[in-house]
Specification:
about 600 residues; RNA-binding; alpha/beta; Gyrase A, domain 2; four-stranded antiparallel β-sheet; five-stranded parallel β-sheet; Rossmann fold; 3 domains
RNA sequence: GCCUCGAUAGCUCAGCUGGAUAGAGCAACUGCCUUCUAAGCAGUAGGUCAUGGGUUCGAAUCCCGUUCGGGGUACCA
């Protein structure tokens, strides 16, 4: 049982003995004492004065005396206004440090009885265009959430559903057929996903032109879009595709292969991966079957034009199209099929969809439809809904070319990291490829931290005019601190200074104690991040920790310390900070360099 | 229109399961490298927590109204 719980229980007992008041753990909260106050743990006594019938100060003193008597790890206490601050014996903190230092999986929970099998879907790209910054946020969140859930003792299956079919890819296919002149990634030297994306943009431009033309002839915007020749051609391609037309399927396969090769490269650079990949071209048929079964069972209905719908008005929503009048399937049809296949393939306790908040409505409906189709797990689907990445000019739109391309961004960041390292004269002793790997590590550290430190639910702003920072509250700052500690530890080794946790109790300074206390917060932070699906909690903690370390580092010598117990303690402290920071950043998918 | 999310320093963000004087970073200004990595440390300045009410011993945090902004409400995905 940890000390906070001991204090909590002792306080409950005190309330009973002193004031004959019965309460439970929910009403007695032990919190960490504010940094600017003396003490380690705090209990707010205001809620108790009502039945102690004494002033907050007196109430605090009475409870303080009782608890201090009862819990022998507590050294003393102070009452400031209505706040009861306990001061804990140094032995407690030092023992904690020893344990943390010796525990290789400090802060992580082993797979135990609460272990769930959780499937996390993320990335989910369309195969008609390359990945952009919005996808980067998705990929980083999905990967990080998976790691955080593993750290909380769960089994995680990372999955990706590739939207490899549908009208969007037909648009690229049509444009390539029409204006491509047989271009390939090989013939042009353009990365496959970028080449296909180029034709998607060309299609959009052409369509925009055609719509304008038709509207000038008196068509409404909707009519114009439906009657634009390019749009008609793309729809024809989709019908041919669903009818298995060999020529269409061939072209589709070829262009998708180009895209996959490109995606694989981007995923590799980003450092994300998947345990199982689904393709909508494999799952949409199951979806169609499910919809038709639903229609047969009277859950769904068919309109005169042969389109199939779900009536959700009883649930406070609208009618929802499930199959088009030409018989082809839509987005939600595919998702129904994908969900069913996943539950057939794996024994899943929980399904998490990492998808942007623009699709909140979609997932609300998906859960409802699956429930109506008789799947008990339908309502348990969890949509991890995250905010958009916005540019100063507003939302990113692939169709309009206002996107920050993922590959470009990573390259630019790497260039900045390289330039900066060289200006600072760092890494000169490293071999070229090792230095390059470190630049990449720093660049990705900056990018990933920049994205993951913000609350996932909120929209965030990216300004391409200002490059992502490498100083201050950033990934490289945390990486730097790690490298700094590693450097000290290397020097210790060179000087043959061995250190163990057997140090006799040294006196510890306030800064050392603050740092040590920050280390003790890590397990709770991991748990909170898991409960709230929030990499941001981890990111902000890592920053807090290394900031604390840098202050300590500035004020104390480590290797030059003559008192052996102190030197020993500081080395253990440093080493533990490095380990915790590395573990924490690992949960964000950020690697830590040995030197930088 | 309806549904939904948001608004904290000049900018980007923490803090939101109610607790002490609202915190960081960036940008601006000042100091600190003959000593373990200055991608660092210390400091100055910067706030009506959109706004009006309510609940409470106590509200940035919870509730209601208002204003402004994002997203959704497609036979796009």
């Amino acid at each position: 049982m940890n000390l906070e719980v001991l204090i909590q229980h002792a306080t409950i007992e005190a309330l009973k003995k002193l004031y004959d008041y019965d309460t439970d753990t929910a009403l007695v909260q032990v919190q960490n004492t504010r940094k600017d106050q003396i003490g380690d743990f705090t209990i707010v006594v205001f809620p108790f004065v009502r039945f102690s019938k004494k002033s907050p100060e007196v109430t605090g003193k009475e409870i303080g005396n009782f608890v201090t008597e009862k819990v022998n790890l507590i050294d003393s206490f102070q009452v400031v206004k209505g706040f009861l601050n306990f001061i804990v014996k140094n032995d407690y903190w030092l023992k904690y440090l020893r344990d943390a230092f010796n525990d290789n999986s400090f802060g992580l929970i082993n797979q135990g009885e609460n272990c769930k099998t959780i499937m996390v879907e993320y990335s989910s790209p369309n195969t008609n265009k390359p990945l952009h910054l919005g996808h980067i946020r998705n990929n980083l969140l999905g990967y990080s959430i998976s790691e955080i859930l593993k750290a909380n003792g769960h089994k995680v299956i990372k999955t990706n559903i590739v939207n490899d079919r549908g009208i969007h890819i037909c648009k690229s296919m049509y444009a390539w057929q029409k204006w491509g002149n047989g271009e390939t990634p090989e013939s042009t030297g353009i990365k496959g996903d970028h080449l296909v994306g180029k034709y998607y943009v060309e299609f959009s431009n052409r369509l925009k032109f055609e719509i304008a033309e038709l509207m000038s002839k008196g068509f409404s915007e909707e009519e114009a879009e439906n009657n634009a020749p390019s749009m008609i051609a793309a729809r024809e391609l989709l019908v041919k595709w669903e009818a298995n037309d060999p020529e269409t399927i061939n072209l589709w396969k070829t262009m998708n292969e180009w895209v996959y090769k490109g995606f694989d490269e981007t995923y590799r650079k980003l450092g994300v991966d998947f345990d199982k990949i689904y393709y909508e071209s494999d799952t949409y048929i199951t979806g169609k079957e499910e919809v038709l079964r639903g229609e047969k069972e009277g859950v769904f209905f068919r309109k005169e034009d042969q389109s199939v719908w779900a009536d959700l008005t009883a649930d406070g929503l609208d009618q929802k199209l499930l199959l088009r009048s030409d018989g082809t399937s839509v987005y939600i049809t595919q998702d129904i099929g994908t969900a069913k296949m996943r539950y057939n393939d794996f024994d899943i306790d929980k399904m998490i969809y990492v998808v942007g908040n623009e699709q909140n409505y979609h997932f609300q409906i998906l859960a409802l439809l699956l429930d109506k189709l008789g799947y008990s797990w339908g309502k348990d689907l969890f949509h991890f809904s995250y905010g958009m990445v916005e540019l100063p000019s507003g939302k990113m739109k692939s169709r309009e070319g206002t996107v920050v391309d993922a590959d470009d961004l990573i390259e630019e960041m790497t260039d900045v990291a390289r330039k900066m390292s060289q200006e600072l004269g760092k890494l000169e002793s490293l071999a070229k490829d090792e230095a390059e790997a470190t630049y990449r590590m720093i660049a990705l550290g900056a990018l990933k931290y920049f994205i993951l430190k913000v609350d996932p639910r909120k929209n965030m702003l990216f300004n391409p005019e200002e490059s992502i920072d490498f100083n201050g509250n950033t990934g490289p700052f945390i990486q730097y601190t790690h490298a700094r500690i590693k450097s000290v530890l290397r020097k210790a080794e060179e000087k043959q200074i061995n250190f163990t946790t057997d140090f006799l109790l040294p006196e510890i300074s306030q800064k050392e104690k603050d740092l040590l206390k920050t280390i003790t917060l890590f397990p709770d932070v991991v748990k909170e991040a898991g409960d709230n699906y929030s990499p941001a909690v981890i990111a902000n903690y890592c920053y807090e920790l290394v900031k604390e370390y840098n202050q300590f580092y500035h004020d104390h010598s480590i290797l030059a310390e003559s008192d052996e117990a102190k030197r020993n303690f500081r080395l253990v402290l440093s080493s533990t900070v490095a380990k915790v920071a590395k573990t924490g950043m690992g949960l964000l998918g950020i690697q830590m360099p040995e030197r930088m």
